[in-house]
Every structure is written in C-alpha cells, then in structure tokens.
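1st attempt posting a full record on here, be nice pls
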Amino acid sequence: MVGRTQYKDIDVIAFGNKGIFQDHQAYAQWYAEWWARRIMDAVDKYDPDLIYTDGNGKWPFSGTHSASGFKCDAAARVVADFYNKADKRHGKTDVLACIKFAPNNPALGITYEVNFPSKIMTEKGENPVGDWYYAPGYTYEASSMVYSLLEYASRDGNYACAVPITPDGDLEPACITMLKDMGEWMKINGEGIYGSKAWKTWGEGELISDPKKPEKAPTLRVFPGGALSKHHAGFKYETSDFRFTEAKNGQLYVWMLRIPEQKTTLKINSLGSQSEYCKSKIKSVSLLGYAKKLKWKQKSDGLYVDFPAGLNLKYAAGLKVELKKK
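the predicted structure (as tokens):
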C-alpha cells in the first residue's frame, strides 16, 4: 500500500515533473490496460460519435506531466479501436476522437478550452457551467451557452458545454430550465448552426481597447472566457456586434448578438456591395423565428436591415441571407 505521505504534494503533481506512476510500474501497467478496456467497452455498448480524453500532457500515458514515469500506447489503441469500429458499423469513419493538448494530427480533434481563438480555426471549443464539477451556487443562464456557441461556431469550431451533475446524479432545477431554454433557441436557429462552417470572416463590431493593456491593438468585443458564471450572465453586446456562419448548402447566417429593444436599422458592414467579403448581390434577407418580410437594402458600405420591434426572441437573433449566384 502506498504511504499517505508519499504523495503529500498530490495537488501540484499534475502540473509538475513528478508523476504518480514512476514508483509503481506494475500498477501503472494494470491501470493503463484497465483504462483502455473500459473505453473500448463503452464504445461497444453505446457507439458514440465522439470520445474525449482530458489531461495536461500530449496524450494519456505519454510519460510526462500527470503521467510522468509511465509511457505506453494505450491512447493510440483506444483511438484506433474507435475508428475501426465506426468504419465496420457505418461503412465509413464518421466519428471523432479528441485528445486534449495532442500535437497537430489529422486523425484527432483539437480543443480550445474556455477561451476563444482570435481567428478562424477548425477546433473544438468548450467551457463548463460553474466549473468542471458540481458545487452549489452556480449561475444557470441559457444566454451564456448561446453566446459561447456562436463565438465558437463562427470561428469554424464545435462547442461542448460541461453541465454539473449533483452528487446524487441529478440536475438542479435551474440547470434543467437552462437546457430547455437552450433547446428552444436551437429549434428556431439550429438551421444556421448544425453542420455549419465559418464564413469569410467570423465577426464584426466596434473595436475596443483593453484598459488593462492599453499597449495592445483594439479588438472586437467578444464573450468573456472562463467557466460560465454570474459575470457571463450579465455580459452585454452591442447591436453592432455580429457573427457569421455558413450552412451546409452555402446559405449565409448573420447572428445579431444583441436583439434591439425597439425598431431600429441595423448596418452590417461585411455585406456591403463593396466589401472585401461579399462579392455577390443579396437576393433575400429573412429573420429566423419571424414569418413576415423584412425591409432591407444593400448599399456599397453595408447591408441595412430594418429590425422590427416587439419580437419575442431571446439571446441572439439570426438573419438568413441569400446571395445571388454568379
């Protein structure tokens, strides 16, 4: 049995050079084999679309960081097994294995945790509600999930949100409400999200400076990074802040990150006839969740859209923009 004081610095081992395996090789080998077999068994039973391994090294059992002292091919065998089973069951490899912090590899998904990349990147984005575990007092707000989703999707990424499960395996009532609200938003706006990719630019809006780093060049206003909290629930965009996605059929979607409270005319600079991003004339503009026609006009400096007042839309609104084919 390992002495209680042998790993008295267990709280810092994960990010240091000492690992829990280096003095227990037989245990490490057993544990790695058990780990691999459990994941393979889960793949057998549930046929998942995605498997994801967390950690702080290049891959599980890489011999470094929290796996210091033991290196083996358990992760590679798990990924190979996952892809082989998908190919056998589906006739193609239509699944994805994501290993956090893995080196660039065309076979693996890459994650961009709790912050947003500054450019268009094909990566998976993720953040947790509260933290990566349960604790009382978390803030459950669907707007935080919607804004995170749009920030990642507009940059060509996918989005995963960790929802905290209580010690007895349940969800808090506020968490259930949050998920239902998110589902209602997706019913209206999902056509511009599912299967989408980044457009020619991920967003536009007012350039702002960081008062804490005045030497840095101004950047677009973006949703705060980190775990979703009360701070995120209170975050406000401006009506000039937009994000863009392109659907599977090539349809363009413009996401208004702040829904106007009264009738107003929105200007989308990236869709002007002289914009570097839009070389086509616009054929039609419609608002997701709104059956009536919109009044709009494309000018050289932008697309002008008269946004109606009194709409019962939440969080962010999507404009569906159809471009004329050349």
